[in-house]
Amino acid sequence: MTPYWDCAGSTYYHGDARAVLREMPAESVQTCVTSPPYWGLRDYGEPGQLGLEATPEEYVAAMVAKSLGRRAIGIDLSAEYLDLAKKRVGSQASLF
Q: Which range marks the domain in which residue 59 is found?
């Protein structure tokens, strides 16, 4: 796999995080920053795309499954954060 950017001991990869992480050697990742599609916001026309689940609960379950998949290939992150589709309507912010 070809790095997107590599400098001063930091290597960055670009692509679907699920696919990129499957290519990484076990225990070789310290940090994973990803921006999955928000639930119900956009359809990118990609098979298996996150964000098109029928309910927020199904979306969270899919995100958890992605997290467990990282652990299955030897990537154990100490903390994970999930931003659940915060939308701005006018000057007010709301969750779904």
A: 5-95
